[in-house]
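Hey L., structure's done. Input below.
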Amino acid sequence: MSTIPDPVRLGVVGLGFMGQTHATNFEELGHEVVAGTDVAEEARDSFTDAYGARTYADAGTMYHEEDLDAVAVSTPNAFHEDSVVAALESGHDVFCEKPLANDLESAERIAAAAREADGFCMVNFHNRVTTPVAVFKEYQTEGHFGEITHVDANYVRRRGIPGVGSWFTSEELAGGGAVIDVGVHAIDLALYLMEFPRVEEVFGVTRTEFGHREDYVDPGDWYDETEEAVFDVEDSATAMIRCADDRTISLEVTWAANQADTSEFVARGTEAGASLEMGGEELTLYGAGKQGTDHLIDSTLTEGSLEHTGWLGSDERFAEAVVRGEPPELNSAEHALVVQRVIDAIYRSADAGGCVSLEDTR
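Output:
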């Protein structure tokens, strides 16, 4: 691939909250927001007012008419494939919102298109881009943990069901509920901490306990029910993921649950372990020693931080890869496909009432 001059010329597909977030981040990083696409005229007008960008009702027209270096796709999950594949076929590098698609078949087609394209596809797993994760990975590279054999992964909202009647609560548009919305982050981060082992077997249970309740308590104003509300997805799930060499991930994800919010991850290794809050700034390393006498060691990260983390850090790494003309090592479409296979397996296991096996997902 040839490199392009900085700044990157960006086109955005899907001009809602995340589309505007990418646009704002790119401008903050010194790049240019050239154009945007959305089916809603109001969203197009708002985007033009905010960024001075030309807008289109159709992504294909934008790809044809505009001189773009890269495209950020922030549509509902069901429309990722059309926008991403067309962008790749037009020669653009693509930053796709998580998950890769609304179902496994669509995700496989996106990944196949990325393999054949001159450009690349990166997926926005922004929880990898935090100080604790960066420190953890450096320690891991040095062999500090030995082999990570188990990760306890939690993304639990006590009350946090997205707007009922929006695409988030529609299986047709989203592909699922809590698992594909927030569980996708937890699955990706857990696999990333384990260096993406081969996933062999999944057992999952999904539940819909709160989404239909008329007495649902919503102090954070997440629920936002419309008159013709659609809620045909799960609001929580529990899963066990068995990987090669008997490595395991225990997963708990909820939009709503009668317990405290938590996004704690605990990684257990043969030589040491660690705990961190997904998206947070704290990291604790756990070890043991025999110096002087048998003892336990807890080491806590107290100073130092990455300059840009989360969504901004993720956008920065995408833009840097575009400028270099090289696919990023972080958040590849192939990793996103593995995550999608696990999500699919959780849903299949829940339907079947037992474990399901996966083919080699590397």
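DSSP finds ten helices and 15 strands in the chain. The mean pLDDT is 94.

-- N.
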